[in-house]
Amino acid sequence: MDHIPGTVGTTTADNGGDFDPRQAADLLDQVTRRARRQFTPLSPLLLTFRAVIVLVIFGGVWLSVRGEHPYTGHIGGRAITVAVVLVAVNIGGTAWVIERAGAGVSGPAQRKWQAWKGFMVAAWIIGYAITAPLYHAAPGHPVWGLYPASAPLLIIGLAGAAVAAAFRYWPLAGTCLAIAVAAAAAGFGGPAGSWLITGTGLCAVYLGLAAFTAGRQHRSMVRP
Amino acid sequence: MTTELDPLIHMPTRLKIVATLAALPDGDALSFTRLQDMLGLTPGNLIIQLRKLEAAGYLASTKTRNGSAQRTTVALTSQGRTALSAYTQALRDLLGGLDVDAASPATPATRSVQGMRS
């Protein structure tokens, strides 16, 4: 039986047997992948689910308002109900994944992540809080129609990209920038079309991030 | 080419510990209970392996007390990360040699480690 130089005594004494390099490589990859999955707050499954959610929510609103001539911004009760339920499920799932990823972890990166979460919660609240006074100010329908589908996500995307870049979270910075681009592009779709453009844009962004995250999690430590 | 595998890491339980901690960002620490939960080890076994790694300077442990509860966290040191990086490189070198030998029917792959040793 061949042995790894300088390892025989230790592995035999500690483990009661030899530890082949192939077994070691497999174990290293297996443990690393599992640890990456458990420590990341960006679960590919959750991101894929989020991609479906945004498509259903924004697509549902688009189906609800696309026949309005002139555009009134009245969204059907069913679309609102579906949106509220899916957003609640998404918030619950996200909170669970973040809680699981950060359980028992402490240190500078964890503190930076907490700060990032705080910034993003503030950006979401500010982005959508502006909607209420705008509604009461009763601007023209085209403005009101574009605003909820496009402007809050533009604010959130740009703020998120700036904070993520400051923290050197480059994949998140790219994602937030892509969200801002999708929201800006939606502005060219008109009051009804902006919902569809935002929905498909966000869906593509989340699917891209899910694929990127899954690829990074499955990358081997040893094999090319 | 590096073919020496660090004997301190080249053992399943310790390899699991080091690989798990290396998945955290540099400087972050993991609680003893979470590490134990992730690896499915008994507290006694985990403590023994952690002590060996800590004695080699691969790990740093910190104990904090909050009232009557004591919390222990462990983190991979920069020396530990360097050691894992060297270990991974050694594995790559060894497996590269194994793959080359496996491609040649005249040389059984199982002899490649012996061949690299001589």
Walk me through the structure.
The complex is a heterodimer of chains A (224) and B (118). With 224 residues, chain A is mostly helical. Chain A is built from 9 helices and 1 strand. In chain B, β2 and β3 form a beta hairpin. Chain B is elongated and about 60 Å long. The chains are: A mainly alpha (224), B alpha+beta (118). Chains A and B meet through α1, α2, β1 and α5 of A and α1, β1, α2, α4 and α5 of B.
Quick overview of this protein structure:
The complex is a heterodimer of chains A (224) and B (118). Chain A is an all-alpha fold.
Element layout with pairings:
The complex is a heterodimer of chains A (224) and B (118).
Chain A: H1 8-15, H2 21-39, H3 44-65, H4 77-102, E1 105-106, H5 108-129, H6 131-136, H7 141-166, H8 170-186, H9 190-218
Chain B: H1 12-22, E1 29-31, H2 32-39, H3 43-55, E2 59-66, E3 69-76, H4 78-103, H5 112-117
Antiparallel strand pairs in B: 1-3, 2-3
State the strand order across the main sheet of chain B. 1-3-2
Unreliable runs of chain A, pLDDT <50, ≥5 residues? 1-13
Give the terminus-to-terminus CA distance of chain A.
28 Å
Continuous helix count of chain A: 9
Class per helix and strand makeup of chain A: mainly alpha
Radius of gyration of chain A over alpha carbons? 23 Å
**Low-pLDDT ranges of chain B:** 106-118
